Predict the structure.
Amino acid sequence: MSRIHENLDALEKRIQDACEKCGRKREEVLLIGVTKTRTADEVNEAVSWGITDVGENKVQEIMDKYDHVPGNVKWHMIGHLQTNKVKYIIDKVSLIHSVDKLKLAEEIDKRAKEHGITADVLIEVNAAGEESKFGTDIAGAKKLIEDVREKCKNVRIKGLMTIAPFTEEPEDVRVYFKELKALFDEYKDIKDDNMDFEHLSMGMSGDFEVAIEEGATMVRVGTAIFGARNYNI
Ligand SMILES: *Cc1c(COP(=O)(O)O)cnc(C)c1O
């Protein structure tokens, strides 16, 4: 069996255990395989195991791999998105996790309208307020949600995303996942054409178990599937 399949088997077991530990159903948590820096062959290796959703943080990588991966795979834009690049991926991605400014939402709205679609997005919250990270704070997220609902008719807010601070000790970031879940719960019962909270995208290789315990519906995992990334290639 390939290393990627072995890693996925082990990861799947850990996800199942985390769900069991907190009394959640496995189907409530979608595993997004994060394939940045990986080749299309590696993506396909994960797809052959059963990965249905892949996450990328660069527009260029989506463009490069898109045609080499089966058409039923769902692409997630999980990284910072520049407004001038929205047009390249608007018809390729099923969910944009990284909306943190009205200007970006407006560009997504404009391009979605051109394609006659409604674009599903998450609002990226920088829960820990780290300067090195994109995302809005909690108050900014609330304002952004209201602005998007009012102004971006071809955008549908499907929930929230956060990247927790890097830590050796996953328990350290539980507080941020709790905060995001509380914000999620404030909106989850409001349903209209522009808002349908379903997804709470949080948890990566180092902290996905804690994220699942705190209510994540999507975990974004790269390293635990593909090994450490080499950015020099
Ligand atoms: C790279 C990345 C991940 C995956 O991180 P790993 O630690 O490799 O699992 C998840 N989310 C985002 C936004 C990323 O850029």
Summary: Residues 34, 36, 57, 78-79, 163, 204-206, 220-224 surround pyridoxal-5'-phosphate (CB under 6 Å). The first helix runs from residue 3 to 21.
